[in-house]
Amino acid sequence: MFLPVAEAILGGIGGALVPDDSGIVKKKKNPGRSAALVVKARQHRLYKRQLEGLTVRQLVLDHAAKEGVCEQTAWFDWRQVNAWNDEDWQKDRENMIARLQSMRVKLFEKAVRKGQLQTAAQILDSLGKVVGESVETVNINAPELAIRVEAKPVE
Questions:
Q1: I need a labelling partner for 87 at 20 to 30 A (CA). Which of 17, 65, 109, 140 fits?
Q2: What is the count of structural domains for the chain?
């Protein structure tokens, strides 16, 4: 029995030499990673890069170029990062004053040690404002000087 050349070489369609694809499940490119995880990881990378000193537009355009996404997707990522920033600020807000105060005290001590008295005075002003000692309060306690010029009577 004579077979056509292609069938003779390949053993016939579905024959012994041609593998059967019906039972094989193809592996994913990144097993265990969904598209949502890929997007979240990309947004996390943008979140980490926001402190590099670039403007928002530069950061978004650079993010689009580095991640290989379109500009619209990069802006979508930025909106998510902005939401995370707002969330971080709300979480840190309660203990922010205490942290600022401790940083001011450390800065004041360092300024006094180095002889930077003007800086130390500014820090003391800042500390005073936080505890309620404002410029208005200080000015209320100061004496008031009023000068009045009266017109000369015409003769």
A1: 65
A2: 1
